[in-house]
Amino acid sequence: MRAKPDYSKLKGVCFYKSNVLMMTPNEEQFKSLDEVPSPFSSRFFDASKNYAAVDLETSRNCPFSCLYCCASTDNMTAKESKLVKLSLERTKADILTIAKNNIQYFGIINPNFGLFPEDLEIAKFIAECKQTYGFPTHIFTSTTRKHFDRLKKIAQLFHHAGITAGWEIPVQTLDDTAMIKTNRIQNFNDYISLTDFMNKEGIDSYAEYIWPLPGETLDSFKTGIAKLCRANAHVIFVYPFTFTNNIGMEKHKLEYGIETTVSETPYSEDEFVIKTNEVSYADNLNGCRFVLAETSCTVCVLYS
Questions:
Q1: Strand, coil or helix: what is 238?
Q2: What is the pLDDT of residue 76?
Q3: Domain topology for 50-165
Q4: Rounded Cα distance, 284 and 189, in Å
């Protein structure tokens, strides 16, 4: 690095010049993830290192508008962003390299895997690679909250190919008020149908829940967990509501009575929600205790 670098030549950065804060124009939005060079066809990928796990981003940003999520194209930093994807041709080329190099663990970086028809084509190709080369053996990804019929086909493809995949089902909340306040509407019957299918096929899946979202109360949270238990959710992951920079919920922070505490992780800018209009600090702690104690019909895991 130069002793006196000229930061003005970089896009999307802030820096001080003569004690004055300077800002450069934002970087232009990618039109396709193909614009990013493939690490698997470049000198950066060294097959001799015998990689055990790799990630491949097939889609960036999210078409939904959940106010707690920074991936939404409607949040404050991404209001000019668009959903961009990796072409099917490029995706298959990278997956083929992964399979041929005997890489076991494959992470598909996509906030809504299964949302688009090409996701089913990607899944078919991965299953074919597993049958031909024996790899990958494990898949990790985030799944869509819509088009569950397509997701069922994808899960079945991987299962029959002998690929282990723990399927997350993003529930997040089952309270009507919380759904309205977070701009997330979903049909619980769709979740029941998907869970029943996964259980009958012997495919591992787990439900995700966020605590405490605005609108949710301690009683409604307990009711939501009970509903998941009755729906035969074998595992429930409960995540704390992490208030990250530039989420859509930021403009409702005062309105919803959101109070946060700073993450103790070094250099992290995340904050954890400890109080809302509906949930006191004591209620928040009792909700966490409830999760840790709830083992009667399922396994609840509290992430912090």
A1: strand
A2: 43
A3: Transcription Regulator spoIIAA (3.30.750)
A4: 28
